[in-house]
Amino acid sequence: MELVLVLAAILLSSMLAAVRLALRSRAEALRLRAINNALGSRVAERTRSLRLALDAAGDQARALACANQAKSNFLAGMNHALRTPLNAVIGFADLMTRNAEQEPLTRKQSRALAEIRVAGSRLLSLIDRILEFSDMEAGAVAVSLERVDPLLVLRQAIEDVRAEAAARGVTLQYPAASPGHVVAADPDRLRQVLLNLISNAVRHNRPGGTVMIEVRQVGDRVTLAVHDDGPGIEAERMEGLFQPFCRLSPHEDRPDADGEAVLGVGLAVAHRLTEAMGGTLTAASTPGEGSSFTLTLPVALATPATIAAPEIELEGSRDLSDLTVLYIEDNAANITLMRHVMSALGPSLHVAETGTEGVALARDLRPDVILLDIHLPDFDGFEVKARLAEDTLTQGLPVVALTAGSGPAEARRGREAGFADWLAKPLDIARLATILRQVAGPQPQRRAA
């Protein structure tokens, strides 16, 4: 009997333990289910939040892309809008200077004209720097490496800054052009870098100072060094010299003494362009003694021919008076300027103000050269060039673009489209004369009477 009671007690204990275990298991299952439900709700909520955040980020990315495109469109429009009046300002100033012998100016007028020319060049430089910096920030900078004679490009840059140097009383010392140096570079970008360095050396020099430019080759590298004897750069500014908006001297935190708004992006642009061409740009300065900027580029590998930047020629042996030039342009000020320019250079000028009129006039005239604006009221200059190329009467005529589109990408597109050359406004009269001589060919032989 006692054994039965013991067994019964053991059985009851086991049953109670099983019940307690079952109840505990159920409670635990309920607790886990509640936790899972809570976790599921939190995951769902986090998923919804993440989806909303991704949607918002997508909207922001699209808005940013639209804003960047709007900025690009705005800058492109401003480039054209500013270069068009600058073409008249700088062009007429250059024209009056060239005609000074035939139409003498007073000393006061000559000084005023020089100030106009310098101010126009300064404004053009600011426009170029703003656009270049914007392109770099957007990652849209491209270079096209060629075999280039750096001395020829250097002479071009010096010609661009010569008027400013004369106005400031700064002497330019540079090596004469000579064969022997060939670098791998983009000629347009190299000219831009050199122009920035030389212009800075002139602008930050003392009155009556000197800017000396040296070119030398060491091994497989060619260096172009620009030295000035100005006030120099403070040591604390040297570290961030090639960073955007870093200015060369403290007074540049405001417009300088003659009113120039200093951006502080020129050296940053020059540094990035140099790196894109596989070169280096360094600086050294001693306060009170001057500064030196050294551009180093790789020597070009040997190829059958050297592609050199065209040399500037202020005068040439080719007489332009027998040329017929067709100018396709819709801006009245630009047309007036070109009439004066051609009157000074000698060619006979005909004008068409639309692409349609220009194509028709080209068929009738068969001019020696066509100067073509890209932005026309009916269709653009590329379409005009295509139509000229399709017509057997006009397909062989040389077409030179004269446009406010100044970017290297546009110039490359122009070369691909078959333009004989690409001139950016404001008009460089000396370069136009050189191009007319090159495009028109050698002087025709006159028959003996």
Give an overview in words.
The N and C termini lie far apart (159 Å). The chain contains eleven helices and twelve strands. Residues 252-261 and 303-316 have low confidence and may be disordered. Strand 10, helix 9 and strand 11 form a beta-alpha-beta unit. The protein is α/β, with parallel strands linked by helices. Among the domains are: 142-298, Heat Shock Protein 90 (2-Layer Sandwich); 324-440, Response regulator (Rossmann fold).
Provide the CATH architecture of the domain at 142-298: 2-Layer Sandwich
CATH class assignment of the domain at 142-298: Alpha Beta
Please state how the strands of the largest beta sheet are arranged side by side.
2-4-5-7-6
Low-confidence stretches: 252-261, 303-316
What fold name goes in the CATH topology slot of the domain at 142-298? Answer: Heat Shock Protein 90
Radius of gyration: 35 Å
The CATH homologous superfamily of the domain at 142-298 is termed Histidine kinase-like ATPase, C-terminal domain
Q: Give the SSE string.
A: HHEHEEHEEHHEEEHEHEHEHEH
Number of strands: 12
Q: By helix and strand content, what is the structural category?
A: alpha/beta
**Roughly what percent helix?**
40-55%
Through-space gap between termini: 159 Å
Q: Write down the overall mean pLDDT.
A: 79
Query: What about the largest sheet?
Result: 5 strands, mixed
What's the helix count? 11
Given the C-alpha coordinates, what overall shape results?
elongated
Strand content: 5-15%
